[in-house]
Amino acid sequence: MVSNETTTEVNNETKSNASCHGPAKSGCQTLAKRSEQVWRELLSTAQVRGFHGSVTIEAVVQDGTIQHIRRRFERLEKQIRAS
Question: What is the domain count for the chain?
Fold first, then answer.
């Protein structure tokens, strides 16, 4: 029997009002780099022996501008059978 245990961490990193269009791209680039860092963190956590589950990173985009980054870490808990 397998049960799901879900842990969701919401990482609301709102950038400044800088747009991703034109010369003022710094806020959007900052969140893009942060999303790469979050992805590396999730993979290093999940890529271990005995981990069963999923990791997800989501970028909320509005009019071409990254608004938020959301990460999810879900682990399947497997029931150990008694011998």
Answer: 1
